[in-house]
Specification:
This protein has 969 residues and is mainly beta. 9% of the residues lie in helices and 46% in strands. It has twelve helices and 48 strands. The longest helix is centred in the N-terminal third of the chain and has 25 residues. The chain is globular, with a radius of gyration of 30 Å.
Length: 969
């Protein structure tokens, strides 16, 4: 497809890579001849390539070192909880909740514009890319940076692909580390909550000399797990809270469903309703939040070789280990009199369905181990050219290895084999375990190999069967590699009356590789005997060129009324991907200062996000093979489809030809395909913003910023659920294939073109649903960001009042071109991977004592507020009202506003001689009044995840009191 560009692409790649490596190598060699020229700290500015200039047409929100130290935050993820523009301000800041991955990593998302398969927020460290991470997602984990190494965090909520390339659709979060440090700093803290605790330790050591500096930072962070049973609001029966009973019919002593459809719980003397209240809940032994432990290190060295050349480099290492307790799992299966332990409440019955939970029989012990290890080096060099021109070359070379092991979960195929003599839940003896073959996993049941799901007195299930039930080890490993080389030249082009016109041009070459390995049960039997495995290697190269010009139109010394200063900025970038093609993205911005202390700004940009490597996958027939690829029995719920949309359905047995529609996915069986899509293309975005910044001379210490922003995203990557696809005639015919005469398992496997089987297939399938990732999500989102502070010096000390917030005015979406556009503003649950909560705000006051006994004392009180919103998930008490084409338009449950308060008090000893010099002691209380999160009527699927609260807007931990100390030497 891109064959015509191969020769020129190869040549440009070699030139750019060679130039970058050559400059870095020469700089490193030149350090041996260092002269005693004064070293200067590199200033990193977010949102522009122009050295020494602030971004034009946008506002950057910054969280500085002083603000960071006035919290007990242990990780970068927790620090971002203080920025309302970042989704999940009221969340726990532990484990994943938005763009999250099974490896334990979580990437921040600006304005809720993101999803697990297509994050729209670019994460940078000191202005450059770092290795991707994640098992089956491609994310950036900012927690790899030791918090003690941070100088500040900057958030640019504006499209920035013209500067940085992919992912910068909603904006950029840039973690800027200390340019230099001289001395030794250590800090530590311990936190205590109800059945919860944390502790951390950090150290920073550095040295400055005449021509350079070096420092190294280390941080260890531990946060305990939080067990669901330790929070009263997390049980699945929410009737006392005004919600639903979401407990299950899957019980330790199995619930029996007879052939007549009646449900009998143990001891099988009477029935329970087929709908309504559940009975059993084993979620109390699961974790709401995982146990996390992380080591992170970063080192930096900078050396001024001579008057023109400065070289340096960074190295980063991080190791995360995470453990989550799980339920053993549930099984729903047919059982017959072939099982020696068969019993029935109906005399003469020979077959029934059992709903069984393995926790009571096997006891606790199921858990998930997750890990993420990152390492990269970042050499860089700056060479001063003629005048104020300089060349900057840098490279980032690194690797991340993510892993996950699911241990001790019940293997449903082994359970079926011991329940009914086959690996199929239906008990069919004529369905092969491996489609297209004559391989059958069957056995004649006896007391030596059968499973008793009724917990008969004495537990007659043999020990060998108990052991085999948890022979279901599932492992995933993904290794991400990056080799990124950049070269930039910038300086002044010519002089105008208002100042110098500045230009920056540059290029970037990046090579990504990704290797995925998956092992899981296949549907044949124990994973150790018949496991299904996937082993995929992926790669792409990206070549980019960019330019930016800054034009000063009016300056203060020109004395033009109503125009104290006017600046214009134009930038553009072209990126070419070896697998998904090329894209060009411009940006224009303007600043206008009509008077001193007032700045108006506006900007327009286009941006893009390239589909991740493990969304595209490696070609496999018409599919893309990834770690999530699979072929199995359909499991996505019932779909009611009008014949006018899919006429072939009228011919399917079980569908009434004279009706207007047919419901499939329940009594009408089918198959399902999951995984990547080799035909994905980059999603595109448009953004504009207008805003104003006020720093009036008449009110010293006051700063106010207001910004109105608008984002449009087209073709974001997601897997369209059937309930959505059915409302798009074009989309439903892409994802659904109907077989009026039925297709056997071998035919379905042939259509899967070699995709791994991840579960048993029905004997006959009347449809095949493709749950692949696709470019189908379109969004229109806009809102207002505000940020204000006022500093007041009084005889009683210095007071600093601050407030910041985000108020969204529109959040519309469309899934599949041609489908109705509908609003999900101020809801969660309609989209399972990102929220659209309308209002988030954080306000507070800080007092710093300046004289007498109060000198060195400071105290901060902050209020975090998340406004009320609607629960539009699938478990609401109040029904969701939908329009004629199925989109939600109203209804759902109201989730109350969430208000919490944080208190921080610290004392810094005077800088006098003695062991207390440079010492700071503090006490921090998060959620001062120990408020539980607002009620949300949900229950974690299979006993996993949140229950009774919303992870996007609620924190189950409660009050945490932390005591800590810092000391500078």
């Amino acid at each position: 497809m891109f064959g015509d560009n191969r020769q020129s692409s190869s040549r440009s790649r070699r030139l750019l890579a060679g130039a970058s490596i050559a400059v870095v190598a020469v700089c490193a060699a030149g350090s041996a001849f260092a002269q005693q020229a004064p070293a200067t700290d590199t200033i990193v500015i977010t949102g522009t390539s122009i050295r020494g200039a602030a971004p034009v047409g946008a506002t950057v929100v910054s969280v500085g070192q002083d603000a960071i130290e006035k919290t007990a935050d242990q990780t970068v993820q927790q620090i971002l909880q203080n920025v309302p523009a970042i989704s999940g301000m009221q969340s726990a800041g532990q484990g994943g909740f938005t763009s999250a991955d099974g490896a334990g990593v979580d990437a921040p998302v600006i304005h809720g514009l993101g999803a697990s398969a297509s994050n729209q927020t670019l994460i940078l460290v000191d202005g450059h890319r770092v290795p991707y991470t994640g098992l089956n997602h491609t994310l950036i984990d900012p927690n790899i940076i030791p918090p003690i190494a941070l100088q500040r965090v900057e958030v640019l909520a504006d499209g920035a692909s013209s500067i940085y390339g992919s992912d910068a659709v909603a904006g950029v979060v840039n973690f800027i580390t200390r340019p230099s440090f001289d001395g030794l700093k250590i800090e530590g803290q311990a936190g205590f909550g109800d059945q919860y605790h944390t502790y951390s330790f950090g150290a920073l050591a550095g040295k400055k000399w005449d021509s350079g500096s070096a420092w190294i930072a280390y941080n260890y962070d531990f946060r305990s797990d939080l067990e669901a049973g330790n929070r009263s609001f997390t049980g699945l029966n929410h009737t006392a809270q005004g919600g639903s009973d979401l407990a299950s019919y899957n019980c330790g002593a199995a619930t029996i469903k007879t052939s007549g459809g009646a449900y009998y719980p143990a001891p099988y003397a009477s029935t329970v309703p087929a709908t309504g209240a559940g009975m059993c809940d084993y979620t109390g032994r699961t974790d709401l939040l995982p146990q996390e432990a992380r080591h992170s290190m970063m080192g930096r060295i900078t050396e001024t070789v001579n008057d023109r050349l400065t070289v340096g480099g960074d190295v980063v290492y991080s190791n995360l280990q995470e453990v989550t307790r799980n339920v053993r799992g549930t099984v729903t299966s047919t059982i017959t009199t072939a099982n020696p332990y068969f019993q029935s409440p109906i005399a003469g019955a020979t077959s029934e369905t059992v709903y069984w939970d393995a926790d009571a029989l096997l006891g606790p012990g199921a858990h998930t181990n997750a890990s993420d290890e990152t390492f990269y080096v970042h050499p860089n060099a700056v060479y001063k050219l003629i005048g104020d021109w300089q060349a900057t070359a840098a490279a980032t070379i690194g690797q991340t290895t993510s892993g996950q092991q699911v241990i001790g979960a019940v293997n449903p195929y082994v359970a079926n084999l011991a329940l009914n003599g086959t690996t199929n839940g239906s008990g069919s003896l004529t369905t092969p375990s491996i489609p297209g073959t004559n391989v059958f996993s069957t056995q004649t049941l006896s007391t030596a190999n059968a499973l008793d799901p009724f917990l008969t007195t004495g537990n007659p299930t043999p020990a060998s069967v108990l052991k085999s039930l948890t022979d279901s080890l599932q492992t995933r490993t993904t290794r991400h590699d990056i080799q990124d080389f950049t070269l930039k030249v910038d300086g002044s082009v010519f002089h105008l009356p208002a100042g110098d016109v500045k230009l920056a041009v540059g290029g970037e070459f990046t090579h990504y590789t990704e290797h995925l390995s998956v092992a899981q049960p296949s549907g044949v039997g124990p994973a150790s005997i018949g496991e299904s495995s996937i082993d995929v290697s992926l790669a792409r190269t990206v070549e980019a060129g960019y330019g930016e010009v800054l034009v000063p139109v009016v300056s203060p010394d020109m004395n033009i009324p109503g125009a104290r200063r006017i600046d214009l900025s134009v930038s553009g970038r072209y990126d070419h991907y070896s697998d998904v093609g090329g894209t060009s993205n411009p940006k224009v911005g303007a600043n206008w200062e009509p008077m001193s202390g007032v700045k108006l700004h506006a900007g327009y940009a286009t941006s893009f996000t390239a589909p991740s490597l493990n969304s595209v996958g490696t070609p496999l027939g018409q599919w893309g093979l990834t770690g999530e690829s699979g072929l199995t029995n359909y499991s996505l719920g019932a779909i009611t489809i009008p014949y006018s949309v899919v006429p072939a359905l009228a011919q399917v047995p079980g569908c009434v030809a004279t009706a207007a529609s047919c419901t499939i996915g329940t009594s009408i069986a089918g198959a399902e395909i999951t995984g990547g899509n080799r035909y994905l293309v980059p999603q595109t975005g448009k953004s504009w913003s207008v805003g104003a910044d006020f720093t009036p001379d008449q009110v010293r210490g006051l700063r106010v910023s207001v910004n109105y922003w608008h984002n449009e995203i087209a073709g974001a990557v997601t897997s369209p659920a059937p309930s959505v696809a059915v409302n798009s005639p074009a989309l439903i015919n892409q994802v659904l294939t109907v077989f009026p005469a039925g297709a056997n398992a071998a035919q379905i496997q042939a259509l899967g073109a070699g995709l791994p089987q991840t579960g048993a297939l029905p004997p006959t399938s009347y449809f095949l649903y493709s749950y692949q990732q696709r470019n189908v999500l379109n969004l229109w989102v806009e809102g207002i960001d505000f940020d204000a502070s006022y500093r007041l010096n009084t005889a009683a000390g210095r007071f600093t009042m601050q407030t910041a917030g985000t108020y969204e005015t529109q959040f519309k979406q469309q899934i599949g071109n041609g489908t109705p556009i509908y609003s999900v503003l101020n809801t969660t649950g309609a989209n399972t991977t990102f929220p659209s909560i309308q209002f988030q705000m954080r306000s507070g006051v800080t007092w710093d004592g300046t004289d007498g006994w109060a000198q060195g004392v400071s105290a901060s009180l902050f209020w975090s507020h998340t406004g009320a919103y609607k629960n539009w998930s699938g478990t609401t008490v109040t029904p969701i009202v939908r329009n004629a084409t199925g989109q939600p338009i109203s209804g759902g449950d109201t989730v109350a506003a969430n208000d919490t308060f944080d208190l921080h008090v610290q004392y810094e000893f005077p800088n006098k001689s003695g062991w207390t010099s440079g010492t700071q002691l503090y006490v921090d209380v998060q959620n001062l009044f120990d408020k539980a999160p607002p009620f949300y009527n949900n229950g974690g699927a299979g006993g996993a995840g949140a229950s009774g609260y919303d992870t996007f807007g609620g924190n189950p931990i409660g009050r945490v009191v932390s005591i800590g100390a810092r000391k500078d030497f």
